[in-house]
Amino acid sequence: VFAAVVQAPEDPILGVTVAYNKDPNPIKLNLGVGAYRTEEGKPLVLNVVRKAEQLLVNDRSRVKEYLPILGLAEFNKLSAKLILGDDSPAIQENRVATAQCLSGTGSLRVGAEFLAKHYHQRTIYIPLPSWGNHLKVFTMAGLSVNAYRYYDPATRGLNIQGLLEDLGAAPSGAIVLLHACAHNPTGVDPAPEQWEQIRQLIRSKALLPFFDCAYQGFASGSLDADALAVRMFVADGGECLIAQSYAKNMGLYGERVGALSIVCKGADVASRVESQLKLVIRPMYSNPPIHGASIAATILKNSDMYNEWKIELKAMADRIISMRKQLYDALSARGTAGDWSHIIKQIGMFTFTGLNSDQVAFMTKEYHIYMTSDGRISMAGLSSKTVPHLADAIHAAVTL
Ligand code: PMP
Predict the structure, then answer these.
(1) 275-300 burial, b if ≥16 CB within 10 A, otherwise e?
(2) How many CB atoms lie within 10 A of CB 66?
(3) Using CB atoms within 10 A as the burial measure, which of 34, 114, 263, 389 is most buried?
(4) pLDDT tens across 246-278, in order?
(5) ipTM of this complex > 0.85?
(6) Structural domains for the chain
(7) Under DSSP, is residue 93 helix (H, G, I), strand (E, B) or coil?
(8) What is the model's pLDDT at position 216?
(9) Ligand 1 atom at shortest distance from the alpha carbon of 246
């Protein structure tokens, strides 16, 4: 009965790793993967995560019962506090409804399903370009997806004029997806004064901001600095949605730890919203898994472990920043044609190199370097040892 099913294409991002795994050449380099790697190219489990897991294992009172539909209550409170700040009035006024969800993707999906059912405007604007899964997640949830201009290829920076024009022309009440920090794939974030312009426009047009926060602490090394944009929007008393992921900042990728928070105007609304979130979640997966959220909660609630996490998080962010500098220096040393300063200006895990798909294909064929065809490279996949190989490849690709 399934004979007519056609072969599906590989996911454009995950497919890069599939191709990489098939390449027998030992010099191969995978810069497509969106996960942190050590200087030795290995995945990293944070020490503080190992410690938290040990505590959980040793606690014989812990059982494997189901969590409630909205997940671990303690984790939800701590997650809202992490993104909104210790002294957030929205939390104190009980205006935030939070659900533990399946990492960032699941939080986006639950938020989108909720909006499709309970919000009057089903149009969402996402930046151009954006993380490839946004279009699919929102479309599958029944929202209609439009794009707003974001990246300017000429400056390899933000097209603030185009952004303001497009959001200015959006229908009243439209949902706007914003990357809270470390925009993926471009690494280009608005400056604080540009965030303020965006906030004023969004509020004046009664648009609804939906923050995707997949890199808090991972961009600058500071959890508070990376939460700046979200906190600006919450400080004005208006509504917003926030999808948080602990994949990158705690390295909990496969544990699928995340949270959706919906900031409302009052406690009564938040409580009704929370009750409806349960109805959205129950038929999708009943309730979320217990282990990863327990690790995150253990770290967030213990001040020693929290401080240890901050140090390890900063070390990851600093290594990525240092890779930017080393790659930039290596291209300068080779006298590679063009301005490469965007490598050190962009923020977060990825650099949007500006290399086109032909140049990417050349680098894969001749240098066994794997990346998405839009020229995005993961800085976390680089090391001091592999920077010269990448710089040689870029140098050759741009002189094709
Ligand atoms: N949003 C953005 C912008 C991302 O880059 C990612 C991870 N690549 C996610 C959401 C979701 O990641 P996860 O579901 O693993 O938390």
Answers:
(1) eebeebbeeeeebbbbebbbbbbbbb
(2) 10
(3) 263
(4) 999 999 999 999 999 999 999 999 999 999 999
(5) yes
(6) 14-44+317-398 (3.90.1150.10), 66-301 (3.40.640.10)
(7) coil
(8) 97
(9) 16
